[in-house]
Backbone:
């Protein structure tokens, strides 16, 4: 019997609470519960889409996984190795295995550096070979992401938004990572350019066996690129399954509302609108019990006091809801 492959990334009970300080003495008066007990895995060559409204904690999850911000609690395993509490020097070799593509393709590039030097910077930091070897590697990366080698000596302002994001992709690939966190990498681009970048990411995944955590609020993009999808609401994962099941048979009321809000590009198709009432509660003072109960049309008394666990209600389909 073949053993299951070790997940590239395993996240268990991840939490990130930001302290709120006030007064002259900067005393802590509360916490922003940005991420509150998130768990999932990403396998080799797999894309996990992470979706939800703005402010639900998606980006914080991505940055905590990369240890760009320190988690408050939880366990992070990269290719089976616990990296949660590794010191700066111990973590350094693992940083080569996980990279990030940022949302804004302009502000994430140093405007005073030539783009060839930007892509070569990770190689230089990690002590890779001579300047000529680094330049050859950058030329190879430029060709792979669809940029001309002659553009290596240009500055970021000389490129379009789509080209700048390709530079960001090339930089993320420089150290041959296994996991890339894509933090809304196409949200700042035109629709036609979005398709080009998404197809590039999928081609790279196929050729290099990359794993992606793809963070987005665009359900159409997530459906196209992802294998499985996790839906977040106010710092928690409320539904987690493969993309076909999520889009055809969602079980959580919040997921149902998200899918109902997606416009249908056919005026002949009529469907009932499901408008979620109320505003998203503040992560500074999240509601007790199920965080969604203040806006859920099916909420019961139990939902207001008891936090639903994320449990497997069907094979491979996890839902955090008392009604399922």
Residues:
């Amino acid at each position: 019997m073949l053993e299951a492959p070790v997940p590239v990334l395993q996240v268990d009970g991840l939490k990130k609470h930001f302290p709120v300080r006030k007064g002259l003495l900067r005393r802590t008066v509360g916490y922003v519960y940005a991420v509150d007990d998130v768990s999932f895995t990403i396998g080799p060559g797999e894309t996990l889409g992470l979706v939800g409204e703005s402010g639900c904690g998606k980006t914080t999850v991505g940055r905590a996984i990369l240890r760009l911000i320190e988690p408050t609690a939880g366990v992070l395993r990269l290719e089976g190795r616990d990296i949660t509490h590794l010191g700066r020097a111990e973590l350094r070799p693992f940083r080569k295995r996980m990279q990030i593509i940022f949302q804004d393709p302009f502000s994430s590039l140093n405007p005073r550096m030539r783009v060839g030097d930007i892509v070569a910077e990770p190689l230089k930091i990690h002590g890779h070979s001579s300047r000529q070897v680094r330049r050859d590697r950058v030329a190879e990366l430029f060709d792979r992401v669809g940029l001309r080698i002659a553009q290596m000596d240009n500055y970021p302002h000389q490129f379009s938004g789509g080209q700048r994001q390709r530079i960001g992709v090339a930089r993320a690939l420089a150290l041959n990572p296994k996991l890339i966190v894509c933090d809304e990498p196409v949200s700042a681009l035109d629709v036609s350019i979005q398709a080009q970048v998404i197809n590039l990411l999928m081609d790279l995944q196929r050729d290099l066996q990359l794993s992606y955590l793809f963070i987005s609020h665009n359900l159409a993009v997530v459906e196209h690129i992802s294998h499985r999808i996790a839906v977040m609401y106010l710092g928690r994962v409320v539904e987690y399954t493969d993309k076909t099941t999520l889009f055809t048979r969602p079980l959580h009321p919040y997921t149902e509302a998200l899918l109902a809000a997606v416009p249908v590009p056919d005026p002949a198709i009529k469907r009932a609108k499901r408008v979620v009432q109320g505003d998203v509660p503040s992560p500074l003072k999240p509601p007790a019990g199920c965080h969604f109960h203040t806006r859920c049309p099916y909420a019961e008394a139990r939902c207001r006091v008891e936090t639903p666990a994320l449990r497997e209600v069907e094979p491979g389909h996890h839902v955090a809801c008392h009604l399922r």
Notes: The longest helix spans residues 191-208. The mean pLDDT is 91.
